Amino acid sequence: MLNFIFKKKTNLNLNIVSIFRNNENYLYNHYLPNIELLEKKSNDIKLFFYTNGNHDNTTSILADFCKNRKNAFLKTSEKKNEIFARDTSFKRVQNIVDARNQLLKLRPFTNQYTIIIDSDIYFDIHVLERLVKNIEPNYSALFANGIDQNYLIETQKIHYYDVLAFIDMFNNYGYEKFLEYGRSENPFTNKEDKTTWEKGKITPVKSAFGGMGLYRSEVLNKFSEYDCVKTFKVMKNKQKLYTEHWSLNFYANRFGALGVDPLAKVYHYSP
Question: Which of 74, 87, 103, 144 is a Cys-bridge partner for 66, taking CB atoms 3.0 to 4.6 Å apart?
């Protein structure tokens, strides 16, 4: 684990929430060392974790990490769910919905901001600090720029990976753009939005995630539950597209704007 000493702590007023399954290497080598580093920089971090159905040491690693921390809350289940391929199937997305809703049972998230981090996202703690710093008063949520690390390694090209959650302000769906044009560094279709993104400025959306999203906690605490049935979309190719993020983001849109920060870069990696 990292052991840096910081002379002055910051006040992020931040909850960090994640769901895990069979993530022992990621937890031990990346996620938890970064959390420890962030704890040394800020005295107002709270942690909320859910895990279930592990075939490795994920549960014990999380339990050991949380047991002596008053700021850490862990919910576990031994339910052995099916292991899914990374696809857009309803069964896989519904399984994620169930896990995210279990995590919500740990509410209330008491700090001002809550950041949701997926269990395959590699990040620098400065990205978390940047999102907290840059969220505008009229925003309900601000998302990171999730980059496909596997594709970057293979091709040396950048691809905004989370096209499933993405909808711009003109109802252009990221997944439809992906099907039509292939991988792209810029997820936007509208010319002005593309230019804003390329200038490194926060760009408004109706939905996004990118593997890391910062929400105002008051919005998350009022939100009932994730869903992928009521919000599914029939694509132009007649495919039904399901994602749990739309249910939360459509709700968050009632209370303020949503945006993506192109300079808040995190990396999605599947070994």
Answer: 74
Which amino acid would we find at residue 257?
Answer: A
What distance in Å separates the CA atoms of residue 228 and residue 166, rounded to the nearest whole number?
15
Q: What is the DSSP string of 73-130?
A: EEEEE---PPPPPSS--HHHHHHHHHHHHHHHTT----SSEEEEE-TTEE--HHHHHH
Determine the CATH number of domain 14-268: 3.90.550.10
pLDDT of residue 271: 76
**Residue written as token pair 């978390």:** 128
Q: How confident is the model at residue 9 (pLDDT cuts 50, 70, 90)?
A: low
User: What does residue 57 show for φ and ψ, rounded to 5 degrees?
Assistant: -95, 20
Using CA atoms, how far residue 72 sits from 45, 69, 102, 241, in Å, is: 9, 5, 16, 35
Is 4 a residue whose pLDDT tops 50? no
**Residues 6 or more apart in contact with residue 263 via CB below 8 angstroms:** 130, 145, 200
Residue 48 to residue 70: CA distance in whole angstroms: 11
The alpha carbon of 247 is separated from its chain's Cα centroid by a whole number of angstroms, namely: 14
Cα 258 to its chain centre, rounded Å, is 14
Q: How many CB atoms lie within 10 A of CB 215?
A: 28
SS3 108: coil
Q: Domain segments of the chain: what residues?
A: 14-268
At 10 the pLDDT is 74
Using alpha carbons, select from 12, 263, 19 the residue that is nearest to residue 143: 263
pLDDT in tens, 55-104: 999 999 999 999 999 999 999 987 766 676 767 789 889 999 999 999 99
Rounded Cα–Cα distance for residues 193 and 237 (Å):
25
* Helix axes of 32-41 and 125-134: crossing angle, nearest 10 degrees: 50
Evaluate the omega torsion of the peptide bond into residue 108 and state whether it is cis, within 30 degrees of 0.
yes
